[in-house]
Amino acid sequence: MSSRKGCLMLLLAFLPAWATPASDDPPRFGRAPTAAEIALWDIDVRPDGTGLPHGRGTVAHGLEVYTTNCVFCHGEGGQGGIKDRLAGGLGTLATAKPIKTVGSYWPYATTLYDYIRRAMPYQAPGSLSDDDYYALSAYLLHINGLLPADGALDQDSLPKVQMPNRNGFVPEPEFRHITNARQKAANKH
Fold it and tell me: Which phi and psi (to 5°) does residue 171 adopt?
């Protein structure tokens, strides 16, 4: 028997097993996550502060956290590092050379907290405590002139910080009213 014919015979012999489902049950992979497992990933913070955890951090402690975890990439005082500049740039967004920093570009202090808690420090995202992330946010706001040296932040005070560019994100007219399939389905009920 030729090898081509042998392969064809083998294929035809196993075809019914591939073509017929083993049972009527859908395949099941893994298990449903527990509420505690979902809570570990449910850490988003909205611009209005919804989702902020309990905790508190000061500018002074933020400097310590920054020096230990951030200065190598972002430089002393949030400038001069190998990564994004974090301080300065106020009033430059409408110029030919805008400088996008926490103080000049970021629209909400709450989403700053959310971003650094999810993505920083670079080598170990999410590895700091909630208090450390509040402190780091306080320090970054301080070096941008938005919080005094003796300032502190928590889940109540952070949403009240008015960022200079809060009203700078204005959608184009065609994007001001967006609907999606879920909104349309919800409106039918």
Answer: -65, 150
Strand 56-58 to 152-154 pairing: antiparallel
Rg (the chain; Cα; Å): 26
CA–CA separation, 100 and 96 (whole Å): 12
pTM of the predicted model as reported, rounded to 2 decimal places: 0.75
How many CB atoms lie under 10 A from the CB of residue 164?
18
Contacts of 72 (CB under 8 A, 6+ apart): 81, 82
Q: What is the pLDDT of residues 100-131, one digit of tens each?
A: 999 999 999 999 999 999 999 999 999 999 99
Give dist(CA 154, CA 146) in Å, integer.
Answer: 15
Domain boundaries, the chain: 53-166
Structural class in CATH, domain 53-166: mainly alpha
Q: Residue 57 carries which DSSP code?
A: E
Structure tokens at 128: 């700091």
CA distances from 35 to 41, 42, 117, 147 (A): 10, 10, 21, 37
